[in-house]
Amino acid sequence: MRRLSGRNRSALIIGMQGIRARKLRTLLSMVSLFLGILAVVAVQAGASIAERALLSDIELTSGYDGTRVADLYGGPAGTVDVVADTVAGRADAVALVQVQATIGESGVSPIQTGPSGTYQDAITEGPADFCNQTGPEQVCPPIGRAISMQLNALTGDVRSFRPFRHVSGDWLSFDTVPSLSPRIVLNKQAAEGFQLYPVPAALRIDGGTGDSVTPQFVGVVDDGTGWPQAYVRMDELTEWTSTENAGIQVLLAGQTPVEQVLSSKLRAKGMEFAPYEVQSRKDFQEQIGLMRLLFLGLSAFVLLIGVAGVLNVGLATVGERVEEFALRRAVGTPRSLLAGIVLAETLLTGLLTAAAAIGFAAGALEVASGVIGGSDPFLAELQFPWEAAVAGIVAGLVAGVLGGFVPALRAARIPISTVMRA
Q1: Cellular component terms, GO, for this chain's entry (predicted)?
Q2: Please, where are the H alpha helices in 66-158?
């Protein structure tokens, strides 16, 4: 560990003594700096939290950065089986076989979000997206006790790619034998529908070949989507119905050999396999950076006002200590040490103010997280960003240098003859 030189150590000790001797002026300097440093800390913390919140929501639907995603629709016969067999039991790849399913009565229009975006509107305004009437001869079935949703059959645990937020119950277990009564995890939108409307426990795949089965609802997750979805094990779905015409989404962990195997197998069936890489941070980096620069510019203006206050206090303090500095010069104190004493006081003042601003911001965030955390799991897990603490310390050091530079020069230029006139 490198120690301070004797001259720097002396400047630091004398600076601390000066702060203790002039507590009121130090407090005034801290007050003038506090709002500026707090603004820098708040902007940095807000930008970091906003970036994390944005990326967190995107990760729910798209996956972590670096995940490679391929969407396969309308493939030839056997495509689902090829993909499912290739990725089954692997930790570096998972497939979501997507089908449209209905739980409830048959032969009716399902309850679904209406034009205004709520389940209740479907009762008064009619079903949305399920009855596309193209001619006067087509009659839409009446709305009955049924809820339609997208059912995602999983070959493995998708949460290693898309970090679903737990709401209630349990997640799917892939270590047990398939059940004849498929276990289903609902997303928040589907769970809301089942809370509002009691429907018969009969699950059917739209266009599927099997009869209806009785599902087991085992849990609820937040998957970031705005429409009803559910998740089921692939092997439990194929126990009772066909997935021949289903859409497929494949998630791959970076450059895994599974990608080459799938590409070869699907190319042999005349189907192109071209995954794209999720780069959410890169896509939004420019937007977030521009927002951060804008608010940092505003907070820097507030910080400069505080620096002006420190500068005025520093000049007044040096004016009162002219005889002291002249006497130190007379006994051989170098000019650089006199300047270092003044700079040490302003730097220490800036660091103390930064500590106070960081502590205040961290406490305010903790209180806000406790008050509004119940409305969103992400808000409940908020932590003070370390980037904001670093920004506060840098702002305190910069303010100390800017506020103490001119007073330090003035102190260094005090002539020895001043002590003779005192």
Answers
A1: plasma membrane
A2: 79-87, 121-125
